[in-house]
Write a structure and sequence with these properties.
It is an enzyme of class 1 (oxidoreductase). By secondary structure, the chain is an alpha/beta fold. Helices cover 41% and strands 22% of the residues. Strands 3-2-1-4-5-6 form a six-stranded parallel sheet. It has a three-stranded antiparallel sheet with strand order 7-10-11. It has a three-stranded antiparallel sheet with strand order 12-13-14. A hairpin with a 2-residue loop joins strand 13 and strand 14. Helix 1 runs parallel beside helix 11 and helix 4 crosses helix 12.
Length: 356
């Protein structure tokens, strides 16, 4: 059997991680013959909760799970890891403006990026989940200059899955009969779910999604807004965020990185926009259609873009440019540091110190 790989999950005491860790530990992500060492990283007040999570993982008696390491120290959490799933971030609270959320998360993801740079394997695959995911991913990558930029991605697979499911339900088929939907741009309400290049398998025949759905008004209206606002709709109904579907999307994303995408299919990931053929500003993490082979993603280039799509793609790019510039402005004014206080890690920055 293969040597164990080390996988860190941040925010490991949270509800997304609680839905995620079992799937990783039982082999749904990295393979049914791949032993796992799980590293659970969270802030000091959550260590007692992590102890309970460790006990549950032990009680699952999973043969692939060789060790579980709970910690609040980045030098332990990121040491020699093969995969990093960065779920933990400062959540948006009532009355908090988006710029306030960005300011808090710039501090966190600069620290985590620097820790990845210092302690992780240079081959590490980093998936950023914590919101605002695209810009957090950009900051983490910029803070880890020795790790290739293509090793960083952010989660838009949840939006991709939501879009595929909406089309499948509309056509009366199972979700695996829908392929090649695209999420362009930001994991926010400006994202653009695009089905102009999608196919639906109806009674054994692959049909363009527009022809299968037969409702352009819906595809250009309610379909887009449903996907864009789905997270808020789940929170309104559950009074909690979408943990189960987010965990499933994380598994899908990382499994495709590890094992590749199917021939003739592409999926959506937030990746560096450098060298794209779609006119998107380059210094962004932007969601594109990608194909993956040998743990390396390749952007699907040259898809025809109509005027409707162009406007939507540019609008979400404009939001990402604004987020990036705001975040980089904070970085230029804020000294982000990791303080050791009686062995406990505290994330902070000068000007208004935030302890998480």
């Amino acid at each position: 059997m293969a040597e164990p790989i080390r996988v860190v999950v941040t925010g490991a005491a949270g509800q997304i991680a609680y839905s995620l860790l079992y799937s990783i530990a039982k082999g749904d992500v990295f393979g049914k013959d791949q032993p796992i060492i799980l590293v659970l990283l969270d802030i000091p007040p959550m260590l007692p909760v992590l102890d309970g999570v460790v006990m549950e993982l032990q009680d699952c008696a999973l043969p692939l799970l060789r060790e579980v390491i709970p910690t609040d120290k980045v030098e332990v959490g990121f040491k020699d890891i093969d995969a990093a799933i960065l779920v933990g971030s400062m959540p948006r609270k009532e009355g908090m403006e988006r710029k306030d959320l960005l300011k808090a998360n710039v501090a966190i993801f600069k620290t985590q990026g620097a820790a990845l740079d210092k302690y992780a394997k240079k081959t590490v695959k980093v998936l950023v989940v914590g919101n605002p995911a695209n810009t957090n991913c950009l900051i983490a990558s910029k803070s880890a200059p020795s790790i290739p930029k293509e090793n960083f991605s952010c989660l838009t697979r949840l939006d991709h899955n939501r879009a595929s499911s909406q089309v499948a339900m509309r056509c009366g088929v199972s979700s695996d009969k829908v392929k090649n939907v695209i999420i362009w741009g930001n994991h926010s309400s400006t994202q653009y779910p695009d089905v102009h290049h999608a196919k639906v398998n109806v009674h054994g025949t692959e049909t363009p999604a527009y022809d299968a759905v037969k409702d352009e008004t819906w595809l250009r209206g309610d379909f887009i807004s449903t996907v864009q606002l789905r997270g808020a709709a789940v929170i309104k109904a559950r009074k909690l965020s979408s943990a189960m579907s987010a965990a499933k999307a994380i598994c899908d994303h990382m499994r495709d990185i590890w094992f590749g995408t199917k021939e003739g299919e592409f999926i959506s990931m937030g990746v560096y926009a450098t060298g794209n053929s779609y006119g998107i500003p380059e210094d962004l993490i932007y969601s594109f259609p990608v194909e993956i082979k040998n743990k390396t993603w390749k952007m699907v280039d040259g898809l025809p873009i109509n005027d409707f799509s162009r406007a939507k793609m540019d609008a979400t790019a404009a939001e990402l440019v604004e987020e990036r510039d705001t975040a980089l402005d904070f970085l230029s004014h804020i000294f982000c540091h990791l303080v050791e206080d009686e062995g406990k890690c505290i994330y902070g920055y000068t000007q208004k110190v935030v302890q998480l």
